[in-house]
Write a structure and sequence with these properties.
This protein is mostly helical. The chain has one domain. Helices cover 76% and strands 0% of the residues.
């Protein structure tokens, strides 16, 4: 059972790290320079 819990905790940690990296990249790039967001919200072809 402990092995399964370790895998779940590792997955959660990776998700958390990925979220932090995404937030950092947004802060670094600044507003209005995201690649994915405008294409999704406006429906314009990338």
């Amino acid at each position: 059972m402990e092995g399964i819990l370790d895998v779940l905790n590792l997955g959660r940690t990776l998700v958390r790290i990925a979220g932090i990296l995404i937030e950092l990249s947004r802060l670094i790039k600044g507003p209005g320079e995201h690649i994915d967001v405008p294409a999704i919200t406006c429906g314009a072809p990338a």
